[in-house]
Design a protein that fits this description.
By secondary structure, this protein is α/β, with parallel strands linked by helices. The two termini are 40 Å apart. The structure holds 2'-deoxyguanosine-5'-triphosphate (DGT), calcium ion (2 copies) and zinc ion (ZN).
Protein backbone atom coordinates (compact mmCIF):
# COMPACT_ATOMS: atom_id res chain seq x y z
CA UNK A 1 0.00 0.00 0.00
CA UNK A 2 0.98 3.59 -0.48
CA UNK A 3 1.88 6.20 2.04
CA UNK A 4 0.64 5.86 5.62
CA UNK A 5 -1.20 9.16 5.60
CA UNK A 6 -2.83 8.11 2.36
CA UNK A 7 -3.83 4.80 3.86
CA UNK A 8 -5.52 6.44 6.72
CA UNK A 9 -7.67 8.49 4.42
CA UNK A 10 -8.23 5.52 2.21
CA UNK A 11 -9.61 3.66 5.16
CA UNK A 12 -11.99 6.42 6.01
CA UNK A 13 -13.18 6.57 2.44
CA UNK A 14 -13.56 2.98 1.53
CA UNK A 15 -14.29 0.88 4.57
CA UNK A 16 -17.93 0.66 5.43
CA UNK A 17 -17.45 3.50 7.82
CA UNK A 18 -17.98 6.76 6.04
CA UNK A 19 -19.07 9.40 8.48
CA UNK A 20 -19.46 12.58 6.46
CA UNK A 21 -17.92 15.08 8.82
CA UNK A 22 -15.06 12.72 9.46
CA UNK A 23 -14.15 12.87 5.80
CA UNK A 24 -14.36 16.66 5.87
CA UNK A 25 -11.96 16.66 8.80
CA UNK A 26 -9.55 14.34 7.02
CA UNK A 27 -9.55 16.51 3.92
CA UNK A 28 -9.07 19.62 6.04
CA UNK A 29 -6.19 17.99 7.86
CA UNK A 30 -4.47 17.16 4.59
CA UNK A 31 -4.87 20.74 3.35
CA UNK A 32 -3.53 22.08 6.60
CA UNK A 33 -0.51 19.84 6.37
CA UNK A 34 0.14 21.17 2.87
CA UNK A 35 -0.16 24.69 4.27
CA UNK A 36 2.47 23.87 6.88
CA UNK A 37 4.85 22.65 4.23
CA UNK A 38 4.43 25.78 2.17
CA UNK A 39 5.07 27.83 5.30
CA UNK A 40 8.38 26.07 5.91
CA UNK A 41 9.32 26.60 2.29
CA UNK A 42 8.61 30.30 2.72
CA UNK A 43 5.61 30.33 0.38
CA UNK A 44 3.34 32.36 2.64
CA UNK A 45 0.79 33.06 -0.06
CA UNK A 46 -0.03 29.45 -0.83
CA UNK A 47 0.29 28.49 2.80
CA UNK A 48 -2.44 30.91 3.72
CA UNK A 49 -4.67 29.83 0.84
CA UNK A 50 -4.53 26.18 1.89
CA UNK A 51 -5.14 27.03 5.51
CA UNK A 52 -8.19 29.09 4.63
CA UNK A 53 -9.63 26.33 2.48
CA UNK A 54 -9.04 23.85 5.30
CA UNK A 55 -11.01 26.01 7.71
CA UNK A 56 -13.90 26.31 5.31
CA UNK A 57 -14.09 22.60 4.65
CA UNK A 58 -13.82 21.80 8.31
CA UNK A 59 -16.84 23.90 9.11
CA UNK A 60 -19.02 22.57 6.29
CA UNK A 61 -22.13 20.92 7.64
CA UNK A 62 -22.56 18.86 4.53
CA UNK A 63 -20.38 15.93 3.50
CA UNK A 64 -17.78 17.23 1.07
CA UNK A 65 -18.45 14.21 -1.12
CA UNK A 66 -21.91 15.55 -1.82
CA UNK A 67 -20.58 18.97 -2.74
CA UNK A 68 -18.15 17.26 -5.08
CA UNK A 69 -20.89 15.09 -6.59
CA UNK A 70 -22.80 18.23 -7.55
CA UNK A 71 -19.64 19.65 -9.14
CA UNK A 72 -19.65 22.55 -6.70
CA UNK A 73 -16.28 22.33 -4.97
CA UNK A 74 -15.30 25.69 -6.44
CA UNK A 75 -18.28 27.35 -4.80
CA UNK A 76 -16.72 26.81 -1.39
CA UNK A 77 -15.13 30.13 -0.43
CA UNK A 78 -11.35 29.91 -0.59
CA UNK A 79 -11.32 26.86 -2.85
CA UNK A 80 -9.72 27.87 -6.12
CA UNK A 81 -8.91 25.69 -9.07
CA UNK A 82 -5.73 24.06 -7.81
CA UNK A 83 -7.09 23.40 -4.33
CA UNK A 84 -10.28 21.99 -5.84
CA UNK A 85 -8.12 19.55 -7.81
CA UNK A 86 -6.34 18.46 -4.65
CA UNK A 87 -9.64 18.01 -2.82
CA UNK A 88 -11.09 16.03 -5.69
CA UNK A 89 -8.09 13.72 -5.70
CA UNK A 90 -8.45 13.20 -1.96
CA UNK A 91 -12.14 12.40 -2.27
CA UNK A 92 -11.90 10.05 -5.21
CA UNK A 93 -8.60 8.27 -4.53
CA UNK A 94 -7.92 8.85 -0.84
CA UNK A 95 -4.47 10.13 -1.83
CA UNK A 96 -2.79 13.40 -2.59
CA UNK A 97 0.29 13.44 -4.74
CA UNK A 98 1.19 17.00 -3.84
CA UNK A 99 1.24 16.11 -0.17
CA UNK A 100 3.25 12.98 -0.81
CA UNK A 101 5.83 14.94 -2.77
CA UNK A 102 6.05 17.56 -0.06
CA UNK A 103 6.53 14.89 2.56
CA UNK A 104 9.26 13.23 0.58
CA UNK A 105 11.06 16.53 0.20
CA UNK A 106 11.62 16.55 3.97
CA UNK A 107 14.68 14.81 5.45
CA UNK A 108 14.49 11.29 6.84
CA UNK A 109 11.24 10.04 8.21
CA UNK A 110 10.29 13.25 9.92
CA UNK A 111 6.87 13.50 8.31
CA UNK A 112 6.05 10.83 10.92
CA UNK A 113 6.56 13.48 13.57
CA UNK A 114 4.10 15.81 11.95
CA UNK A 115 1.29 13.36 12.51
CA UNK A 116 1.43 14.45 16.13
CA UNK A 117 -1.02 17.18 16.97
CA UNK A 118 0.92 20.38 17.57
CA UNK A 119 4.00 19.43 15.59
CA UNK A 120 4.10 21.13 12.24
CA UNK A 121 6.89 21.05 9.67
CA UNK A 122 8.75 23.86 11.41
CA UNK A 123 8.96 22.08 14.73
CA UNK A 124 9.68 18.77 13.05
CA UNK A 125 12.59 20.29 11.16
CA UNK A 126 13.90 21.88 14.32
CA UNK A 127 13.72 18.61 16.24
CA UNK A 128 15.53 16.92 13.41
CA UNK A 129 18.30 19.50 13.08
CA UNK A 130 18.98 20.10 16.76
CA UNK A 131 18.30 16.70 18.29
CA UNK A 132 18.50 14.30 15.36
CA UNK A 133 14.96 13.04 16.00
CA UNK A 134 13.29 11.29 13.08
CA UNK A 135 10.80 8.85 14.60
CA UNK A 136 7.98 8.93 17.13
CA UNK A 137 9.91 6.61 19.42
CA UNK A 138 12.92 8.92 19.37
CA UNK A 139 10.67 11.87 20.08
CA UNK A 140 9.10 10.12 23.03
CA UNK A 141 12.47 9.14 24.45
CA UNK A 142 13.82 12.66 24.00
CA UNK A 143 10.86 14.11 25.89
CA UNK A 144 11.19 11.62 28.71
CA UNK A 145 14.91 12.33 29.01
CA UNK A 146 14.19 16.04 29.24
CA UNK A 147 16.17 16.84 26.11
CA UNK A 148 13.43 18.93 24.53
CA UNK A 149 13.64 21.65 27.14
CA UNK A 150 17.17 22.38 25.98
CA UNK A 151 15.52 24.04 22.97
CA UNK A 152 14.15 27.52 23.15
CA UNK A 153 10.39 27.63 23.56
CA UNK A 154 10.05 24.04 24.84
CA UNK A 155 8.99 24.01 28.48
CA UNK A 156 7.54 21.21 30.62
CA UNK A 157 4.06 22.11 29.44
CA UNK A 158 4.96 21.54 25.80
CA UNK A 159 6.59 18.25 26.71
CA UNK A 160 3.52 17.08 28.51
CA UNK A 161 1.33 18.03 25.57
CA UNK A 162 3.56 16.16 23.18
CA UNK A 163 3.43 12.99 25.27
CA UNK A 164 -0.34 13.21 25.46
CA UNK A 165 -0.59 13.80 21.73
CA UNK A 166 1.61 10.78 21.01
CA UNK A 167 -0.64 8.58 23.12
CA UNK A 168 -3.79 9.83 21.46
CA UNK A 169 -2.22 9.48 18.05
CA UNK A 170 -1.38 5.85 18.78
CA UNK A 171 -4.83 4.91 19.95
CA UNK A 172 -6.52 6.79 17.11
CA UNK A 173 -4.24 5.14 14.57
CA UNK A 174 -5.42 1.74 15.47
CA UNK A 175 -8.44 -0.19 14.54
CA UNK A 176 -8.77 -3.52 16.26
CA UNK A 177 -9.80 -6.84 14.81
CA UNK A 178 -13.22 -7.92 15.99
CA UNK A 179 -11.71 -11.23 17.08
CA UNK A 180 -9.21 -9.37 19.27
CA UNK A 181 -11.81 -7.50 21.28
CA UNK A 182 -14.54 -10.08 21.85
CA UNK A 183 -13.06 -11.42 25.07
CA UNK A 184 -12.54 -7.88 26.39
CA UNK A 185 -16.20 -7.25 25.77
CA UNK A 186 -17.32 -10.28 27.68
CA UNK A 187 -15.18 -9.20 30.62
CA UNK A 188 -16.44 -5.61 30.41
CA UNK A 189 -20.07 -6.64 30.36
CA UNK A 190 -19.55 -9.00 33.26
CA UNK A 191 -17.70 -6.41 35.31
CA UNK A 192 -20.38 -3.79 34.80
CA UNK A 193 -23.20 -6.24 35.45
CA UNK A 194 -21.56 -6.83 38.83
CA UNK A 195 -22.71 -3.42 40.04
CA UNK A 196 -26.08 -3.23 41.73
CA UNK A 197 -26.73 0.10 40.08
CA UNK A 198 -26.65 -1.53 36.64
CA UNK A 199 -30.00 -2.76 35.33
CA UNK A 200 -28.89 -3.70 31.85
CA UNK A 201 -25.58 -3.61 30.07
CA UNK A 202 -24.88 -4.19 26.43
CA UNK A 203 -22.21 -3.51 23.88
CA UNK A 204 -23.37 -1.34 20.98
CA UNK A 205 -21.52 0.28 18.05
CA UNK A 206 -19.59 -1.58 15.38
CA UNK A 207 -18.97 -4.50 17.73
CA UNK A 208 -22.65 -5.23 17.96
CA UNK A 209 -22.88 -5.01 14.20
CA UNK A 210 -19.96 -7.46 14.12
CA UNK A 211 -17.94 -5.35 11.78
CA UNK A 212 -14.57 -6.94 11.00
CA UNK A 213 -12.59 -4.15 12.62
CA UNK A 214 -13.66 -1.76 15.33
CA UNK A 215 -12.44 1.71 16.20
CA UNK A 216 -13.63 1.76 19.78
CA UNK A 217 -16.10 0.04 22.07
CA UNK A 218 -19.46 1.58 22.88
CA UNK A 219 -20.87 0.27 26.09
CA UNK A 220 -24.43 1.01 27.06
CA UNK A 221 -25.87 0.78 30.56
CA UNK A 222 -29.41 1.28 31.80
CA UNK A 223 -29.55 2.60 35.32
CA UNK A 224 -31.25 5.04 37.62
CA UNK A 225 -28.06 5.66 39.56
CA UNK A 226 -25.78 7.08 36.91
CA UNK A 227 -23.03 8.26 39.22
CA UNK A 228 -22.39 4.82 40.69
CA UNK A 229 -22.23 3.35 37.22
CA UNK A 230 -19.63 5.86 36.12
CA UNK A 231 -17.57 5.23 39.26
CA UNK A 232 -17.51 1.55 38.54
CA UNK A 233 -16.64 2.12 34.91
CA UNK A 234 -13.59 4.31 35.54
CA UNK A 235 -12.36 1.88 38.18
CA UNK A 236 -12.06 -1.00 35.69
CA UNK A 237 -8.70 -2.68 36.36
CA UNK A 238 -7.61 -2.35 32.73
CA UNK A 239 -8.06 1.41 32.54
CA UNK A 240 -4.86 3.39 31.96
CA UNK A 241 -6.49 6.71 31.31
CA UNK A 242 -9.80 8.40 31.98
CA UNK A 243 -10.38 10.69 29.01
CA UNK A 244 -13.65 12.11 30.23
CA UNK A 245 -16.08 11.42 33.02
CA UNK A 246 -19.71 12.49 33.05
CA UNK A 247 -23.03 11.09 34.18
CA UNK A 248 -24.27 10.31 30.68
CA UNK A 249 -21.04 9.84 28.79
CA UNK A 250 -17.58 8.75 29.90
CA UNK A 251 -14.56 7.58 28.00
CA UNK A 252 -11.54 5.56 29.06
CA UNK A 253 -8.51 3.99 27.40
CA UNK A 254 -7.59 0.42 28.26
CA UNK A 255 -4.08 -0.98 28.54
CA UNK A 256 -4.44 -2.46 25.06
CA UNK A 257 -4.91 1.04 23.66
CA UNK A 258 -8.58 0.35 23.09
CA UNK A 259 -10.95 3.21 23.82
CA UNK A 260 -14.26 2.52 25.53
CA UNK A 261 -17.16 4.95 25.47
CA UNK A 262 -19.78 4.44 28.14
CA UNK A 263 -23.29 5.84 27.89
CA UNK A 264 -25.63 5.63 30.81
CA UNK A 265 -29.34 6.01 30.12
CA UNK A 266 -32.57 5.69 32.06
CA UNK A 267 -34.18 2.25 31.72
CA UNK A 268 -37.14 3.46 29.65
CA UNK A 269 -34.75 4.76 26.99
CA UNK A 270 -32.59 1.66 26.79
CA UNK A 271 -34.07 0.41 23.51
CA UNK A 272 -33.76 3.70 21.70
CA UNK A 273 -30.26 4.30 23.07
CA UNK A 274 -29.24 0.81 22.00
CA UNK A 275 -30.67 1.44 18.56
CA UNK A 276 -28.96 4.81 18.30
CA UNK A 277 -25.53 3.73 19.51
CA UNK A 278 -25.50 0.51 17.54
CA UNK A 279 -25.52 2.52 14.33
CA UNK A 280 -24.42 2.49 11.75
CA UNK A 281 -24.65 6.18 11.34
CA UNK A 282 -25.89 5.72 7.77
CA UNK A 283 -28.58 3.32 8.90
CA UNK A 284 -29.70 5.72 11.60
CA UNK A 285 -29.85 8.67 9.25
CA UNK A 286 -32.23 6.79 6.99
CA UNK A 287 -34.35 5.68 9.91
CA UNK A 288 -34.65 9.21 11.21
CA UNK A 289 -35.78 10.33 7.79
CA UNK A 290 -38.65 7.85 7.91
CA UNK A 291 -39.63 9.14 11.33
CA UNK A 292 -39.54 12.74 10.16
CA UNK A 293 -41.78 11.95 7.20
CA UNK A 294 -44.41 10.78 9.68
CA UNK A 295 -44.13 13.90 11.76
CA UNK A 296 -42.05 12.15 14.42
CA UNK A 297 -38.66 12.59 15.96
CA UNK A 298 -36.20 9.74 16.62
CA UNK A 299 -33.20 10.11 18.91
CA UNK A 300 -31.37 8.22 21.64
CA UNK A 301 -34.20 8.91 24.10
CA UNK A 302 -37.05 7.51 22.07
CA UNK A 303 -39.45 7.99 19.20
CA UNK A 304 -41.67 11.04 19.75
CA UNK A 305 -44.55 12.85 18.12
CA UNK A 306 -43.11 16.15 16.98
CA UNK A 307 -46.31 18.10 17.64
CA UNK A 308 -47.51 16.71 20.95
CA UNK A 309 -44.16 15.50 22.28
CA UNK A 310 -45.86 12.22 23.11
CA UNK A 311 -43.60 9.19 23.34
CA UNK A 312 -44.44 6.58 20.70
CA UNK A 313 -41.76 3.95 21.31
CA UNK A 314 -38.32 3.45 22.81
CA UNK A 315 -38.23 0.85 25.52
CA UNK A 316 -37.12 -1.81 23.08
CA UNK A 317 -35.52 -1.68 19.66
CA UNK A 318 -38.35 -3.81 18.29
CA UNK A 319 -40.89 -1.20 19.36
CA UNK A 320 -39.08 1.44 17.33
CA UNK A 321 -38.80 -0.58 14.16
CA UNK A 322 -42.41 -1.71 14.47
CA UNK A 323 -43.69 1.82 14.95
CA UNK A 324 -41.81 2.86 11.82
CA UNK A 325 -43.52 0.13 9.83
CA UNK A 326 -40.43 -2.03 9.57
CA UNK A 327 -39.61 -5.63 10.41
CA UNK A 328 -36.96 -5.95 13.10
CA UNK A 329 -33.50 -5.50 11.56
CA UNK A 330 -30.65 -7.54 13.03
CA UNK A 331 -27.63 -5.41 14.04
CA UNK A 332 -25.35 -7.11 11.48
CA UNK A 333 -27.52 -5.75 8.67
CA UNK A 334 -27.57 -2.14 9.80
CA UNK A 335 -25.19 -0.69 7.25
CA UNK A 336 -27.64 0.98 4.89
CA UNK A 337 -27.13 -1.67 2.27
CA UNK A 338 -30.79 -2.09 1.43
CA UNK A 339 -31.94 -3.52 4.76
CA UNK A 340 -34.40 -0.73 5.50
CA UNK A 341 -36.12 -1.12 2.15
CA UNK A 342 -36.22 -4.90 2.62
CA UNK A 343 -37.65 -4.49 6.12
CA UNK A 344 -40.40 -2.24 4.79
CA UNK A 345 -41.33 -4.84 2.19
CA UNK A 346 -41.10 -7.82 4.52
CA UNK A 347 -38.27 -9.46 2.60
CA UNK A 348 -35.41 -9.49 5.08
CA UNK A 349 -33.45 -12.76 5.08
CA UNK A 350 -33.73 -15.16 8.01
CA UNK A 351 -30.07 -14.97 8.97
CA UNK A 352 -28.08 -18.09 9.77
CA UNK A 353 -27.39 -18.44 13.49
CA UNK A 354 -24.25 -19.51 15.31
CA UNK A 355 -26.03 -22.42 16.96
CA UNK A 356 -27.21 -23.73 13.58
CA UNK A 357 -23.67 -24.44 12.42
CA UNK A 358 -22.95 -28.12 12.95
CA UNK A 359 -19.38 -28.43 11.84
CA UNK A 360 -16.11 -26.70 11.06
CA UNK A 361 -14.74 -27.25 7.57
CA UNK A 362 -11.14 -26.04 7.73
CA UNK A 363 -8.45 -26.79 10.31
CA UNK A 364 -4.84 -27.88 10.66
CA UNK A 365 -3.19 -30.44 12.91
CA UNK A 366 0.30 -31.61 13.85
CA UNK A 367 0.40 -33.38 10.51
CA UNK A 368 1.23 -29.99 8.98
CA UNK A 369 1.64 -26.71 10.88
CA UNK A 370 -1.01 -27.14 13.57
CA UNK A 371 -0.26 -27.92 17.20
CA UNK A 372 -3.01 -30.41 18.01
CA UNK A 373 -3.49 -34.07 17.16
CA UNK A 374 -6.62 -35.05 15.28
CA UNK A 375 -7.95 -36.51 18.53
CA UNK A 376 -7.42 -33.22 20.33
CA UNK A 377 -9.24 -31.33 17.59
CA UNK A 378 -12.15 -33.76 17.91
CA UNK A 379 -12.28 -33.28 21.63
CA UNK A 380 -12.28 -29.50 21.37
CA UNK A 381 -14.94 -29.58 18.65
CA UNK A 382 -17.20 -31.84 20.69
CA UNK A 383 -16.85 -29.55 23.68
CA UNK A 384 -18.18 -26.78 21.49
CA UNK A 385 -21.18 -28.89 20.53
CA UNK A 386 -20.12 -29.55 16.94
CA UNK A 387 -21.07 -32.73 15.09
CA UNK A 388 -18.24 -32.90 12.57
CA UNK A 389 -14.95 -31.38 11.50
CA UNK A 390 -12.92 -31.50 8.32
CA UNK A 391 -9.18 -31.91 8.76
CA UNK A 392 -7.57 -29.85 5.99
CA UNK A 393 -3.82 -29.86 6.45
CA UNK A 394 -1.48 -28.20 3.98
CA UNK A 395 -0.10 -29.94 0.92
CA UNK A 396 3.59 -30.54 0.18
CA UNK A 397 4.58 -27.36 -1.62
CA UNK A 398 3.95 -25.53 1.64
CA UNK A 399 7.28 -26.85 2.87
CA UNK A 400 7.60 -24.45 5.83
CA UNK A 401 4.22 -25.72 7.01
CA UNK A 402 5.33 -29.37 6.67
CA UNK A 403 2.73 -29.88 3.98
CA UNK A 404 1.60 -33.44 3.24
CA UNK A 405 2.61 -35.43 0.18
CA UNK A 406 0.38 -38.17 -1.22
CA UNK A 407 1.86 -40.87 0.98
CA UNK A 408 1.50 -39.00 4.27
CA UNK A 409 -1.98 -37.87 3.33
CA UNK A 410 -2.91 -41.55 2.78
CA UNK A 411 -1.57 -42.32 6.24
CA UNK A 412 -3.62 -39.52 7.72
CA UNK A 413 -6.73 -40.80 5.96
CA UNK A 414 -6.17 -44.19 7.56
CA UNK A 415 -5.86 -42.63 10.99
CA UNK A 416 -9.08 -40.71 10.45
CA UNK A 417 -10.85 -43.87 9.33
CA UNK A 418 -9.73 -45.66 12.50
CA UNK A 419 -10.83 -42.74 14.62
CA UNK A 420 -14.26 -42.58 13.00
CA UNK A 421 -14.85 -46.23 13.81
CA UNK A 422 -14.45 -45.43 17.50
CA UNK A 423 -16.40 -42.17 17.54
CA UNK A 424 -20.10 -42.02 18.15
CA UNK A 425 -22.24 -39.11 17.14
CA UNK A 426 -19.27 -37.32 15.67
CA UNK A 427 -17.56 -37.52 12.28
CA UNK A 428 -14.13 -36.51 11.11
CA UNK A 429 -13.96 -35.71 7.42
CA UNK A 430 -10.75 -36.40 5.54
CA UNK A 431 -9.81 -33.22 3.80
CA UNK A 432 -6.86 -31.22 2.62
CA UNK A 433 -6.00 -27.61 1.90
CA UNK A 434 -4.30 -28.21 -1.40
CA UNK A 435 -2.08 -25.49 -2.75
CA UNK A 436 -2.98 -23.96 -6.10
CA UNK A 437 0.28 -23.69 -8.03
CA UNK A 438 1.25 -20.79 -10.30
CA UNK A 439 -0.15 -22.48 -13.37
CA UNK A 440 -3.42 -23.31 -11.66
CA UNK A 441 -2.60 -26.99 -11.28
CA UNK A 442 -2.94 -28.55 -7.84
CA UNK A 443 -0.16 -29.63 -5.55
CA UNK A 444 -1.51 -33.19 -5.16
CA UNK A 445 -2.56 -35.75 -7.72
CA UNK A 446 -6.20 -36.46 -8.55
CA UNK A 447 -5.62 -40.07 -7.57
CA UNK A 448 -5.50 -39.10 -3.92
CA UNK A 449 -7.80 -36.05 -4.07
CA UNK A 450 -10.62 -38.23 -5.34
CA UNK A 451 -10.58 -40.29 -2.16
CA UNK A 452 -11.02 -37.31 0.17
CA UNK A 453 -14.28 -36.02 1.63
CA UNK A 454 -13.44 -32.36 1.33
CA UNK A 455 -10.84 -30.66 -0.83
CA UNK A 456 -10.20 -26.99 -0.19
CA UNK A 457 -7.94 -25.35 -2.76
CA UNK A 458 -6.07 -22.17 -1.83
CA UNK A 459 -3.55 -19.69 -3.18
CA UNK A 460 -0.55 -19.09 -0.89
CA UNK A 461 1.95 -17.38 -3.19
CA UNK A 462 2.37 -14.91 -6.01
CA UNK A 463 0.11 -12.29 -4.46
CA UNK A 464 1.50 -9.66 -6.80
CA UNK A 465 0.36 -11.39 -10.00
CA UNK A 466 -1.76 -9.47 -12.44
CA UNK A 467 -5.51 -9.73 -12.17
CA UNK A 468 -5.64 -11.82 -15.31
CA UNK A 469 -2.97 -14.25 -14.17
CA UNK A 470 -4.54 -14.71 -10.76
CA UNK A 471 -8.01 -15.15 -12.20
CA UNK A 472 -6.81 -17.75 -14.70
CA UNK A 473 -4.86 -19.53 -12.01
CA UNK A 474 -7.91 -19.85 -9.78
CA UNK A 475 -10.31 -20.65 -12.59
CA UNK A 476 -8.04 -23.47 -13.73
CA UNK A 477 -8.03 -24.89 -10.21
CA UNK A 478 -11.81 -24.69 -10.00
CA UNK A 479 -12.02 -26.89 -13.06
CA UNK A 480 -10.41 -29.75 -11.18
CA UNK A 481 -13.16 -32.29 -10.52
CA UNK A 482 -12.28 -32.84 -6.90
CA UNK A 483 -12.04 -29.29 -5.59
CA UNK A 484 -14.99 -28.61 -3.29
CA UNK A 485 -14.20 -25.17 -1.92
CA UNK A 486 -11.97 -22.22 -2.67
CA UNK A 487 -10.04 -21.37 0.52
CA UNK A 488 -9.68 -17.75 1.70
CA UNK A 489 -10.59 -16.60 -1.82
CA UNK A 490 -8.98 -13.15 -1.83
CA UNK A 491 -5.88 -13.77 0.30
CA UNK A 492 -6.18 -10.56 2.27
CA UNK A 493 -4.94 -10.12 5.82
CA UNK A 494 -6.93 -7.44 7.57
CA UNK A 495 -4.93 -4.30 8.49
CA UNK A 496 -1.88 -5.94 6.91
CA UNK A 497 -2.19 -7.21 3.36
CA UNK A 498 -4.71 -6.14 0.75
CA UNK A 499 -6.53 -8.78 -1.28
CA UNK A 500 -4.70 -9.97 -4.37
CA UNK A 501 -6.27 -8.69 -7.51
CA UNK A 502 -8.69 -11.18 -8.97
CA UNK A 503 -11.87 -11.03 -11.00
CA UNK A 504 -14.27 -12.38 -8.42
CA UNK A 505 -17.23 -12.18 -10.74
CA UNK A 506 -15.55 -14.59 -13.09
CA UNK A 507 -14.44 -16.82 -10.20
CA UNK A 508 -18.04 -16.95 -8.95
CA UNK A 509 -19.34 -17.78 -12.38
CA UNK A 510 -16.96 -20.70 -12.84
CA UNK A 511 -17.47 -21.88 -9.26
CA UNK A 512 -21.17 -22.03 -9.94
CA UNK A 513 -20.72 -24.05 -13.12
CA UNK A 514 -18.38 -26.40 -11.30
CA UNK A 515 -20.39 -26.62 -8.08
CA UNK A 516 -17.55 -25.27 -5.92
CA UNK A 517 -18.22 -23.60 -2.57
CA UNK A 518 -16.68 -20.32 -1.50
CA UNK A 519 -15.01 -20.43 1.88
CA UNK A 520 -15.68 -17.93 4.61
CA UNK A 521 -12.43 -18.28 6.49
CA UNK A 522 -13.17 -17.36 10.10
CA UNK A 523 -9.63 -16.64 11.23
CA UNK A 524 -9.74 -13.17 12.85
CA UNK A 525 -7.38 -11.43 10.45
CA UNK A 526 -8.73 -13.19 7.34
CA UNK A 527 -12.54 -13.17 7.35
CA UNK A 528 -12.23 -14.04 3.70
CA UNK A 529 -14.57 -13.88 1.77
CA UNK A 530 -15.70 -10.76 3.55
CA UNK A 531 -19.30 -9.66 4.07
CA UNK A 532 -19.73 -7.75 0.82
CA UNK A 533 -18.15 -10.44 -1.34
CA UNK A 534 -20.03 -13.25 0.38
CA UNK A 535 -23.24 -11.47 -0.39
CA UNK A 536 -22.20 -11.11 -4.02
CA UNK A 537 -21.32 -14.83 -4.08
CA UNK A 538 -24.77 -15.71 -2.81
CA UNK A 539 -26.32 -13.50 -5.42
CA UNK A 540 -24.22 -15.30 -8.03
CA UNK A 541 -25.90 -18.52 -6.90
CA UNK A 542 -23.12 -19.92 -4.70
CA UNK A 543 -23.11 -21.55 -1.31
CA UNK A 544 -20.44 -21.07 1.35
CA UNK A 545 -18.47 -23.27 3.69
CA UNK A 546 -17.28 -21.79 6.96
CA UNK A 547 -13.94 -22.88 8.38
CA UNK A 548 -11.89 -21.54 11.26
CA UNK A 549 -8.49 -22.40 9.73
CA UNK A 550 -7.65 -23.27 13.35
CA UNK A 551 -4.04 -24.23 14.00
CA UNK A 552 -4.70 -25.13 17.64
CA UNK A 553 -7.65 -26.88 19.31
CA UNK A 554 -8.46 -23.65 21.12
CA UNK A 555 -8.88 -21.75 17.87
CA UNK A 556 -11.95 -23.80 17.01
CA UNK A 557 -13.74 -21.23 19.15
CA UNK A 558 -13.32 -18.75 16.31
CA UNK A 559 -16.16 -20.32 14.34
CA UNK A 560 -18.74 -17.63 15.29
CA UNK A 561 -16.56 -15.02 13.58
CA UNK A 562 -17.26 -16.77 10.29
CA UNK A 563 -20.95 -16.88 11.07
CA UNK A 564 -20.93 -13.14 11.75
CA UNK A 565 -19.52 -12.56 8.27
CA UNK A 566 -22.25 -14.79 6.86
CA UNK A 567 -24.89 -12.81 8.73
CA UNK A 568 -23.49 -9.49 7.53
CA UNK A 569 -23.68 -11.01 4.05
CA UNK A 570 -27.42 -11.66 4.42
CA UNK A 571 -26.88 -15.43 4.32
CA UNK A 572 -29.59 -17.84 5.39
CA UNK A 573 -29.06 -21.36 6.73
CA UNK A 574 -29.44 -22.84 3.25
CA UNK A 575 -26.57 -20.71 1.98
CA UNK A 576 -24.09 -22.25 4.41
CA UNK A 577 -23.34 -25.96 3.98
CA UNK A 578 -22.12 -26.31 7.57
CA UNK A 579 -25.73 -26.15 8.73
CA UNK A 580 -26.34 -29.54 7.11
CA UNK A 581 -26.21 -32.75 9.11
CA UNK A 582 -23.10 -34.71 8.13
CA UNK A 583 -24.91 -37.22 5.90
CA UNK A 584 -26.56 -34.52 3.86
CA UNK A 585 -23.33 -32.59 3.72
CA UNK A 586 -21.50 -35.60 2.28
CA UNK A 587 -24.24 -36.05 -0.29
CA UNK A 588 -24.01 -32.41 -1.26
CA UNK A 589 -20.24 -32.70 -1.60
CA UNK A 590 -20.56 -35.42 -4.21
CA UNK A 591 -20.60 -33.23 -7.27
P1 LIG B 1 -16.15 2.32 14.98
O1 LIG B 1 -16.11 2.66 16.42
O2 LIG B 1 -15.37 3.23 14.13
O3 LIG B 1 -15.80 0.90 14.71
O4 LIG B 1 -17.67 2.48 14.47
P2 LIG B 1 -19.01 2.73 15.29
O5 LIG B 1 -20.14 2.47 14.36
O6 LIG B 1 -18.99 1.98 16.56
O7 LIG B 1 -18.97 4.28 15.51
P3 LIG B 1 -18.85 5.18 16.82
O8 LIG B 1 -18.14 4.48 17.92
O9 LIG B 1 -18.27 6.47 16.36
O10 LIG B 1 -20.34 5.47 17.22
C1 LIG B 1 -21.19 4.45 17.70
C2 LIG B 1 -22.55 4.63 17.16
O11 LIG B 1 -23.16 5.81 17.69
C3 LIG B 1 -22.60 4.83 15.66
O12 LIG B 1 -22.62 3.62 14.97
C4 LIG B 1 -23.88 5.62 15.50
C5 LIG B 1 -23.94 6.45 16.73
N1 LIG B 1 -23.37 7.77 16.49
C6 LIG B 1 -22.20 8.25 16.95
N2 LIG B 1 -22.00 9.51 16.56
C7 LIG B 1 -23.05 9.86 15.83
C8 LIG B 1 -23.44 11.03 15.15
O13 LIG B 1 -22.75 12.04 15.12
N3 LIG B 1 -24.63 10.99 14.49
C9 LIG B 1 -25.40 9.87 14.50
N4 LIG B 1 -26.54 9.86 13.85
N5 LIG B 1 -25.07 8.76 15.12
C10 LIG B 1 -23.92 8.74 15.78
CA1 LIG C 1 -17.42 2.23 18.20
CA1 LIG D 1 -17.53 5.42 20.07
ZN1 LIG E 1 -4.52 -21.40 3.72
Amino acid sequence: MGHRGGDQLFRVLFTEFSGGTRLNLEVARALREIADFFAVKGDRFRSRAYRRAAQRIESLTEDIREVHARGELRSIPGVGESIARVVEELITTGRCRLLEELRESMPGGIHELMKIEGIGPKTALLLHRKLGITTLEELETAVREGRLRTLRGFGPKVEENILKAIEIHRSAQRRFLLGQVLTTIEALERYMAGSEAVERVMIAGSVRRRKETVGDLDLLVASERHLEVVERFVSLPEVVKVVSRGTTKSTVILRSGLQVDLRVVDPESFGSALQYFTGSKEHNIKLRRIAVRRGWKLNEYGLFDRRTGERIAGETEESIYRALGLDYIEPELREDRGEIEAAAEGRLPRLVRVEEVRGDLHMHTKWSDGTGTIGEMVEAARALGLEYIAICDHSKSMAIAHGLDEARLRKQMEEIERLNRELEGFTVLSGVEVDIKRDGSLDLRDKVLKDLDFVVASVHSGFKSSKEEMTNRIVTALHNDYVRALGHPTGRLILKRPPYSVDLERVFEVAREQGVLMEINAFPNRLDLNDVNSRAAKEAGLRMSIGTDAHTPDQLRLLPLGVYVARRAWLEPKDVVNTLPVKELLRTLER
